[in-house]
Task: inverse folding
């Protein structure tokens, strides 16, 4: 493929991925608002615990087929056949184990009510395996079909769940919505994607795939563990209802964080084009400052008006989620602002740090959450996660300083100043206008937001200029 064609397809793919992310997030948040009002928190807790077990099983069946097929430059079609065969063997085997041992496993975990859902959910492993042809569509940068298939599935899932929840199906409405999504994905993929995998067993391929997949799978399993072990302990130690509250408190902030994570898809190629470390440092400081600007205000709003926001969007029954929600909103400010060091590490080829950080995070999260959850409930769980994340941060801060002489304070002092002033204005408005009338609460949030943006405009001409030039460059090309 010519360089111009590759660049054009890459830009189109990037635009489609961005549109897809925004659309999926909007659909997800909208459906969560509706389902949160229709269902009890325990229903969400049951689904989260079930998905912890199913996703853990899914990690066992994964040979990192997407990464392996996309990196194959010689014969990706043959690679698809091989991965389809070996992941199929693993998926069917693990699904059968869950099918027959599901009741025993859930009895051991103290969740016998989830035995039948686990047996039904075992089929999800099969459906996910059958989505393999979509990988070649991604490799060919055919994100038109990827976007179309994903959006249809994302519309089917909440439609089924909301319809069933409205008719009193409780937890089962969430499970059947997920099943409907997976079935729709498989059907659409096999209709619209022209690639057809076949069963081809090659022993030489098996060893090659294992050499490639095992390090990635081990790192991914550790990463999954530290991301999800808190869900397990809350469900195990506190029960389904508390897990439902905790899930809601965790999910909304990290959905906001997802928008900042999308910056990595742009910043890594940009860093790779830099001619020297000075350009990398400048770009790093810009993206760090922009992330802080995006995340600071939602944290201020949640700190000042979490109760009316939760009540308005989800209902009074979700009020126990307020304090963990506020804690996680503060955590995503830290995680989102200081996350971009990872791109520099990859660019410099210093990837061993990832395994160290992930392993340290997995151990510390497991310990702190197990210790604090029985003592202080889901507030203790959230605090345990924060302590663990802050505890491992010196590892990469100290390590990062050895690669590039970067200081964070010059990059973020402007949004910090704007945030402090906005926080003071918001506090004054909250005491003046109160927190009971939704109209006054909305007005207070809007005024505080305007003050925050005005301060950013006055303090940070560079960021404002970049955003303005980007907008006008888009207008000039239309």
Result:
């Amino acid at each position: 493929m010519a360089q111009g064609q590759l660049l054009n397809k890459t830009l189109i793919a990037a635009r489609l991925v961005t549109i897809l992310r925004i659309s999926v997030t909007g659909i997800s948040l909208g459906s969560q608002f509706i389902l949160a009002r229709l269902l009890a928190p325990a229903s969400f807790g049951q689904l989260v615990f079930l998905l912890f077990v199913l996703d853990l099983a899914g990690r066992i069946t994964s040979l990192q087929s997407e990464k392996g097929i996309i990196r194959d430059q010689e014969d990706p079609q043959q690679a698809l056949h091989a991965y389809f065969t070996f992941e199929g063997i693993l998926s069917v085997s693990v699904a059968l184990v869950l099918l027959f041992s599901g009741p025993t496993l859930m009895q051991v975990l103290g969740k016998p009510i989830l035995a039948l859902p686990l047996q039904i959910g075992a089929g999800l492993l099969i459906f996910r395996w059958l989505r393999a042809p979509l990988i070649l569509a991604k490799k060919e940068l055919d994100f038109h079909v990827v976007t179309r298939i994903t959006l249809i599935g994302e519309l089917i899932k909440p439609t089924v769940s909301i319809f069933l929840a409205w008719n009193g199906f409780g937890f089962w409405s969430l499970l059947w919505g997920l099943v409907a999504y997976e079935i729709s994905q498989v059907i659409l993929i096999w209709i619209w994607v022209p690639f057809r995998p076949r069963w081809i067993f090659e022993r030489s391929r098996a060893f090659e795939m294992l050499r490639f997949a095992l390090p990635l799978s081990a790192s991914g399993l550790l990463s999954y563990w530290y991301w999800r072990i808190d869900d397990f302990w809350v469900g195990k130690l506190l029960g389904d209802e508390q897990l439902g509250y905790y899930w809601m408190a965790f999910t909304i902030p990290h959905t906001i964080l997802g928008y900042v994570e999308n910056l990595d898809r742009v910043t890594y190629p940009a860093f790779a084009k830099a001619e020297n470390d000075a350009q990398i440092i400048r770009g790093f400081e810009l993206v760090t400052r922009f992330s802080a600007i995006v995340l600071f205000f939602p944290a201020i709003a949640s700190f000042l008006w979490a109760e009316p926001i939760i009540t308005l969007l989800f209902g009074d029954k979700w009020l126990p989620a307020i304090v963990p929600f506020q804690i996680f909103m503060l955590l995503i400010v830290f995680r989102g602002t200081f996350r971009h060091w990872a791109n520099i590490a990859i660019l410099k080829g210093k990837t061993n740090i990832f395994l160290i950080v992930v392993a340290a995070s997995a151990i510390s999260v497991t310990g702190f959450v197990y210790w604090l959850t029985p003592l202080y409930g889901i507030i203790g769980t959230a605090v345990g996660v924060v302590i663990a994340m802050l505890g491992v941060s010196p590892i990469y801060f100290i390590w990062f300083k050895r690669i590039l002489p970067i200081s964070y304070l010059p990059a973020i002092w402007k949004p910090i100043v704007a945030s402090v002033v906005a926080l003071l204005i918001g506090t004054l408005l909250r005491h003046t206008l109160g927190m009971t009338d939704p109209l006054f609460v909305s007005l207070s949030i809007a005024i505080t937001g305007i003050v925050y943006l005005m301060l950013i405009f006055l303090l940070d001409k560079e960021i404002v200029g970049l955003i303005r030039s980007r907008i006008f460059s888009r207008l000039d090309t239309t």
User: Anything to note?
Assistant: The chain has a mean pLDDT of 85.
